[in-house]
Write the structure tokens for this entry.
Amino acid sequence: MTNPETPNVPALEVIPLGGMGEIGKNIFAYRYADEIMVVDGGLAFPKAHQMGIDLIIPKIDYLLEHQHLIKGWILTHGHEDHIGGLPYIFPRLPRVPVYGAALTLGLVREKLSEFGIKDGEVDLREVQLTDSVQIGEHFKVDFVRMTHSIPDNAGYVLTTPVGRIVHTGDFKLDEQPSDGQLSDLGRIERAGKDGVLLLISDSTNAERPGHTPSETEIAQNLEEVIANCKGRVFLTTFASNVHRIQNVIKLAHRQSRRVVMEGRSMLKYAQVAQGLGLMEFPDPLLTSEEVGELQDQQILFVCTGSQGQPMAVLGRLAFGTHAKIALRRGDTVILSSNPIPGNEDAVNLIVNRLYEIGVDVIYPPAYRIHASGHASQEELATVLNLARPKFFLPWHGEPRHQINHAKLAQTLPRPPKRTLIAQNGDVVSVGPDEFRVSGTVTAGAMYVDGLGVGDVGDEVLLDRVNMSQEGIVILNAVLHPTVHVEVVTRGFVRPNRDLDDQIRRVAQEAVEQGMREKRRLEDVRDDMYGAVRRFVRKATGRNPVLIPMLVD
């Protein structure tokens, strides 16, 4: 695409393949002329209606089609929605340099090793968050440290032939971060003074007024809560929230409690962070078998399950299926997290079960023990004012978040000249005097179900939903020597011989008529399907999944 004002200079194409109009599976492609730079490669978790699905990853048809143009990859941080899809993506694309900070690459290596992908098969290059890297001839990336709920989190300033792009990455402007590493707003301000053509900014909390609370404040509140607990304490939070887990370990030491860490992902993040010097343990961690001689008030469990996952540690504790630990009255369970949208029912189920057991349950909003890792309106306005972009692309949020972010930008003293609300697959053409959606590419979701990747689509999910709501009826018609129909139902109605007999009779009449008329077997099968479908709908008001079969 050529810029109409400067016909000899192509426009930069900004192509969100995931993470736009949604929260999850973040991945960006930038294309200028014959070069592509990619940012992140995340996953999303299934909603309740996506039955049987384990994970959701972005479709990368565009990258596969243009893989020979990919010159490099940037990773902003180590959260699953930004790196979780990489083990599925990297093996399908050429080996190119992949740049990221120490913790980010440490977590990527762990994920890749779980899939049997060796270090030599990927080109991971560690950077400091003050570094600059050149990708191809057209992309210069200056990393920018931004505070978030995980260390080594980066935004970046991207210098291209058409102008300067600022991408915040996930961020909040924590003025008292646990590790003392403030957001490098000076670099964004310098970019703003030099001229920012486009700002791409995190919209997750664009509906929230004010300022997102500091992680230091949350640590103080947690210490006050735990100091008042008399028995064992079980605390759950996001395994990736390294700062909060570090704060909990330190406050446990101050309160003479020994820490037991339970859950594979919790241990993985802690081990990687400790190996990089980002987490330290004043006392050695204990296993659940080693706490037998300690009194209840000397024990603090840090465990997985903050999102109500049934097989995570907290879920197994709530339903009494943990092999080594059982909750009892006098225990306190602390949920230092909020449910991700879509997980509310699962979390509520766990909380109600904990109440039934008789433990004390402490969770937001009654207790201020969780803070988002994303910026609220005051922080978003600060970044907009510093960057002073000509164009603005709200990102990392559902449409309501993007639109509220756009509205916020228009209230500022120097609003962007133009704002776009983009969707996954939009090709956003950017030039000195150009900012528009110039086309679309294939984008969307691929479902991971067991060992299958992409072999379950929306039509399969619809069948699963229909079966869960209406049940299934299987019609098996044997044609010779005489027509005989068997009816099998599951999840339809409770056993009802009269209804089965009526379905059998309708199906048999349709088959016999088709045989008399010497119709093709495919047409006879369809006749049986249609007749039974109409009868069942009229007799029961239901619409089960019907599977007709003919055996000749």
Q: What stands out?
A: The first strand starts at residue 12 and ends at 18.
